[in-house]
Amino acid sequence: MPSTDSKDQKTSILAENYKGIISLLGEDVSREGLLDTPERVAKAMQFLTSGYTEDPQEVLRKALFKEDYKQMVIVKDIDFYSLCEHHMLPFWGKAHVAYIPNGYITGLSKIPRIVDIFSRRLQVQERLTTQIKDCLQETLNPLGVMVVIEAQHMCMQMRGVQKQNSTTTTSDFTGAFNQAKTREEFINLIK
Ligand SMILES: [Zn+2]
Questions:
Q1: Does the structure show a pLDDT above 60 at 3?
Q2: What is the tens place of the pLDDT at every residue in 24-81?
Q3: Which of 31, 57, 115, 184 is deepest in the core (most CB within 10 A)?
Q4: Known catalytic residue: 85?
Q5: Cβ atoms of residues 136 and 177 within 8 Å
Q6: In the sheet where 168-173 sits, what is the strand order?
Q7: Is the CB of residue 115 less than 8 Å from the CB of residue 151?
Q8: Whole-prediction pTM value?
Q9: Do 157 and 100 share a structural domain?
Q10: Are residue 164 and residue 182 in the same domain, yes or no?
């Protein structure tokens, strides 16, 4: 592998590889409509995987505030777009995040930010759910965290089983959310 230090360098290497892929798929890469496609795809994929270059814990740590509030904080209906690591096809949907502070809260806009950072990597929905939960738990040390993700997967809809409208739901939680009553409160509030 040649050295891949700068982003531009990576873009042109990626573009070169996409040119090969498009050609192997049976297309004429010198056709007018495809001339700039390899570079565009390279840039799009770099954006869709830009979460690798960001540290979600750092994002939360920069916006920690001391606060006595000890009730549930919920950020629901966070739109996200990710790529399944098995087919590199999109899966997308909504994430719902709740936590119960234990002395510290974080800026509300930081929660969608960390959802974005973890989404912009090659993922499976299950791990995405757990990573968001762990990040909040480890950074804020709250009394509990719960994450619910509802998503649709292009790899199911466009190929194979072609279940057009199926939704996959995953959830994970810590601490106070081990109590069914606490989970119910959250589930009722995101309905
Ligand atoms: Zn897939």
A1: no
A2: 999 999 999 999 999 999 999 999 999 999 999 999 999 999 999 999 999 999 999 9
A3: 115
A4: yes
A5: no
A6: 122-123, 73-84, 90-100, 144-153, 168-173
A7: no
A8: 0.93
A9: yes
A10: yes
Q: Are residues 92 and 24 in the same domain?
A: no
For residue 135, say whether it is annotated as part of any ligand binding site.
Answer: no
Catalytic residue among 27, 57, 155, 157: 155
Question: Do 65 and 129 share a domain, yes or no?
Answer: yes
Ligand 1 midpoint to CA 164 (Å): 14
170 close to 114: Cβ distance less than 8 angstroms: no
Distance 83 CA to ligand 1 centre (A): 8
CA of 120 from ligand 1 middle (Å) equals 15
Centroid of ligand 1 to alpha carbon of 71 (angstroms): 37
Read off the tokens for 127. Answer: 């791990």
- Kindly give the distance from the C-alpha atom of residue 88 to the centroid of ligand 1, in angstroms, as a whole number: 7
Specify whether 162 is catalytic: no
Q: Do 146 and 81 have their domain in common?
A: yes
Active-site residue flag, 123 = no
Of 14, 29, 50, the one marking the end of a domain is 50
* Catalytic position from the list 27, 46, 87, 185: 87
In terms of pLDDT, which residue wins out, 71 or 166?
71
Which has the closest alpha carbon to 138: 108, 174, 107? 174
Residue numbers of the domain that contains 118? 56-190
In the residue annotation, 135 being an active-site residue is answered as no
CATH at residue 23: 1.10.286.10
102 shares a domain with 23? no
